[in-house]
Amino acid sequence: MPPKRQVYAFNVLFEQPDALGRFRKMASLAGPAGRLYALCALQELSPHDAVTLGREVAASTDQITVGDHDVYQRQPMRDVAILVLARGLGAEFRKERIEVEEYFQPTR
To answer: Which contacts qualify for 13-19: CB closer than 8 Å, 24 or more apart?
Structure first.
């Protein structure tokens, strides 16, 4: 499967000088998907903030639609947060940075 645009966008935001502030804002203002996205970044940028957000998400009763290849299903947000934390998705997204940058580079 080709690299994901979400991973590319994650790394573009992560490289900004104000990345921590952007992801903190996302963690507090975004919907379920955005908060999980922020959780990925905060694992790398601020473990303390990640723990705090992880606790908030664990208490959530929100559901989120999760896509795994071409299968989509609703899952409790807290279950997805456990996956994010256990797999260290922020670190995985960072490792994929060069591959996704090359894939999404505009042709010149």
So the answer is: 13/41, 14/41, 14/44, 14/45, 14/93, 14/94, 19/45
Q: Where exactly are the structural domains of the chain?
A: 5-103
Q: What is the pLDDT along the chain (108 residues), one digit of tens a residue?
A: 778 899 999 999 999 999 999 999 999 999 999 999 999 999 999 999 999 999 999 899 999 998 877 899 999 999 999 989 999 999 999 999 999 999 988 765
Backbone torsions φ then ψ of 17, nearest 5 degrees: -60, -25
Q: Measure the CA–CA gap between 10 and 103, rounded to whole angstroms.
A: 14
C-alpha torsion sign, points 87, 88, 89, 95: negative
Please say whether the beta carbons of 81 and 39 come within 8 A: yes
pTM: 0.88
